[in-house]
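Box 3.1 — From sequence to structure: C-type lectin domain-containing protein
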Amino acid sequence: MKTWQEAQRYCRENHTDLISGLKQLQDEELKNVTNSVGNEPYFGLFRDTWRWSDGSSFSFRHWNNNHNNQQYNSDQCAASAFNDEGRWKTDSCDQKKPFVCYSEKVILIKENKTWEDALYYCRDHYHDLVTITNQDEQRRVQEKAKNALTPFVWVGLRYICLKEIWFWVCKESLNLERQNDCNISGAMETRGEHRWFQRNDTEELNFICSKD
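Predicted structure (token representation):
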């Protein structure tokens, strides 16, 4: 039982963050967990105007029927009322409640490796070099990248010069010697706007793996 701020700090220190966003809130495992804890557990939405704790951009909302008639203060947070079909309610952030964390499915590796070595490291120890296909994935990866020890981090973006295309490796079998003739791969800058850059893949950088 913790206040919303205590719950957020606990989740960030021990997992990734308070549960946030549409996909996580609809997950069947979440329903089973929250039904077992009861007592309207906190999740990662707070008013400022309402935004998610982990920075997700989801606009999905599931407020209770009294939401439009409620008066709000700046110190209000959101909780899920499971005796009301899981609809959301607001409460003071200082109230102590159970809460639900989630663990991110990407990990920053603070070792310097070439792009190819990073690829095989991720595939040997996790799943693959990370793929980024939407803005929320970009936001979560760049939060990891901020803690890197190198100015860029490798991601799973590869360039084939002969075909003049960029592509995400996504656990595909890859004949690097046959497919690549210019040694270019993609990396994200760890500061600034976290844009993607083409880098010589013999450069040794930190990198980000996906866990599944």
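Summary of the box: The longest helix spans residues 4-14.
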